[in-house]
């Protein structure tokens, strides 16, 4: 086949895959594009990005990085099963796009922090609170291959960290005692984050409980809002729904939240 003909065929193939051809109406192309956008919006990545973008770190003087709990995604993505969501989260963990932090009081409550945000926040805090911030650089590289927890033996292996180093890491807040000889990986300000997070949760649950018939529309809660010392109504609604703290029903007016007695 002549080279010119190959070029024409190649150009025609590329055009048909990316833009409407003469045989395809612009309307059909728009429909396909809209469908693609909707599908992209219904992913764990897009939901995480949306929650991260709206997280009010500036309101709290950057005391903690943007944090999203895995169970909040169950509320953001009702069209997906929890198994499907967990699978996508685990894939992002494997690619080291996010770091999982054990926060909360139950074994299945996992906080998800973007890897870049985690490292940036820890570095910033260490610069202001450690005499030797290089310890943090070594720590960040070292724990890159660990998930959620780490043992004292791992930290001391090949003399990677001394007892004094470990004490500095505890002081900064990146290590929290799990049990004798093991540590949860964490971030500076995790305690303040949980205090703020639980305060918002309690306020939303109180609103639902005190509403008529202990039921209230999601849209009504959003109108009421939360005090600025909380993390935001949208964020907190996804918490109480995703963590099964309220019963949820779909109505013609939107989701209805009902208090669990």
UniProtKB/TrEMBL annotation:
Record-linked PANTHER family: SERINE/THREONINE-PROTEIN KINASE 19 (PTHR15243), SERINE_THREONINE-PROTEIN KINASE 19 (PTHR15243:SF0)
UniProt record similarity statement: Belongs to the STK19 family.
Protein name: Serine/threonine-protein kinase 19
Pfam families reported for this sequence: Stk19 (PF10494)
GO biological process, one term: positive regulation of Ras protein signal transduction
Coiled coil feature spans: none
Superkingdom, natural source: Eukaryota
Gene designation: RvY_09112-1
Entries under InterPro entries matching the protein: STK19-like (IPR018865)
């Amino acid at each position: 086949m002549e080279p010119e003909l190959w070029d024409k065929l190649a150009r025609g193939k590329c055009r048909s895959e990316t833009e409407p051809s003469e045989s395809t109406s612009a309307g059909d192309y728009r429909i396909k594009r809209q469908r693609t956008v909707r599908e992209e919006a219904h992913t764990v990545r897009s939901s995480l990005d949306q929650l991260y973008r709206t997280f009010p770190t500036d309101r709290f003087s950057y005391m903690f990085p943007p944090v999203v709990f895995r169970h909040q995604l169950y509320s953001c993505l009702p069209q997906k099963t929890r198994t499907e969501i967990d699978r996508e989260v685990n894939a992002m963990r494997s690619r080291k796009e996010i770091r999982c932090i054990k926060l909360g009081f139950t074994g299945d409550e996992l906080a998800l922090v973007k890897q870049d945000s985690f490292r940036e926040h820890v570095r910033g805090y260490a610069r202001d609170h450690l005499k030797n911030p290089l310890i943090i650089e070594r720590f960040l590289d070292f724990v890159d291959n660990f998930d959620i927890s780490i043992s004292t033996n791992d930290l001391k292996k090949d003399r990677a960290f001394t007892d004094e180093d470990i004490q500095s890491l505890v002081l900064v807040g990146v290590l929290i005692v799990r049990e004798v000889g093991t540590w949860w990986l964490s971030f500076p300000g995790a305690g303040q984050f949980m205090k703020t997070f639980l305060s918002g949760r309690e306020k939303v649950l109180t609103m639902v409980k005190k509403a008529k018939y202990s039921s209230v529309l999601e849209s009504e809660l959003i109108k009421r809002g939360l005090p600025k010392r909380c993390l935001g109504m949208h964020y907190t609604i996804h918490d109480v729904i995703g963590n099964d703290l309220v019963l949820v029903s779909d109505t013609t007016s939107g989701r209805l939240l009902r208090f669990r007695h």
